[in-house]
Design brief:
142 residues; 2 domains; disordered C terminus
């Protein structure tokens, strides 16, 4: 099994759909030639479009892909409007207990251990894809 990301660009959703179906067929051939398996049951589809439209169902060898409104790729959550608010919420939810725990235990740590705790346990969550997620959220404020 192998992970794969396919995307196409197009102005009209129906044309994009045709492009995507051709791309899926090409990827399927490549998988077959390289003795890999594309697991359609574990494949998700997300349509990113300016206007809300019902995109045609994508199929592969008779199996219909799941159409999702948000998707996780390389640990980053994004929705169909390319808003990374779900990612920001996930980071906040994960960091809140860590920071609370750090605050509670800070008085028992010397400065070196406190810095090590922060550097190893908190900072990586703040920095992972930060330019992408935070700059997008600043331009998409509600």
């Amino acid at each position: 099994m192998a992970d794969c990301l396919l995307f196409t660009l197009g102005g009209i959703p129906s044309q994009s759909c045709i492009k995507m179906e051709n791309l899926i067929d090409s990827a399927s051939e490549w998988y077959d030639q390289n003795l890999l398996v594309l697991n359609a049951n574990k494949t998700d589809v997300m349509t990113i479009c300016h206007q809300s439209t019902d995109s045609p169902k994508k199929r592969f060898k008779g199996i219909e892909f799941k159409q999702l409104s948000k998707i996780k790729y390389l640990g980053i959550l994004s929705d169909e409007s390319l808003n990374f608010k779900p990612q920001s919420n996930k980071v906040k939810q994960k960091l809140y207990p860590m920071i609370k725990n750090f605050k509670r235990n800070r008085k028992f740590l010397n400065p070196h251990l406190a810095k090590l705790w922060y550097t190893c346990l908190i900072r990586p969550h703040l920095e992972y894809c930060a330019p992408l997620t935070f700059s997008t959220n600043l331009t998409n404020r509600e």
